[in-house]
Amino acid sequence: MVDSAVAKKTAEAEVAQAERTRSGRAYRPNVDIIENKEELLVVADMPGVSSSSIDVKFENGSLEIHGRVPVRQTPETRYLLREYGVGDFYRSFQVSEAIDASRITAEYADGVLTLHLPKIEAVKPRKIAIKML
Asked: Is 49 in contact with 68 (CB distance < 8 Å)?
């Protein structure tokens, strides 16, 4: 016989691990991740997104980027040629927890989202002074 509390926790864990589903199209934005002494820099191409429709979340070492793109034409539009797909942008990354989440900043200009993920002091490289004896 299975304890109901254990079964409930197992079911909750399975739900927590399930992938999200979305209606409509979702595109993976192209991303560059650059590391320097002070921070990780994440640069994501997200054309057509307004800054007010971007959500960035960082929790337990997981970084999620989601940008909603509005529909450009009405449903009645008659296309002669249609190559540009419209849909949301979504990307997630597992990032070292050596990031100071309280100091993360974001900028958005010309269709490019730039995230600054500062490292915590303990992981920054430091120069060790040598004493003369």
From this structure: yes
Distances (CA, A) of 7 to 15, 19, 125: 12, 21, 46
Q: Which two tokens stand for residue 113?
A: 């989202």
Burial call 4-41: b when 16+ CB within 10 Å, e when fewer: eeeeeeeeeeeeeeeeeeeeeeebebeeeeeeeeebbe
**131 token code pair:** 């004493």
According to CATH, the topology of domain 19-121 is Immunoglobulin-like (2.60.40)
pLDDT, residue 127, reads: 73
Q: How many CA atoms lie within 13 A of 60 on its CB side?
A: 0
Look up the pTM and report it: 0.71
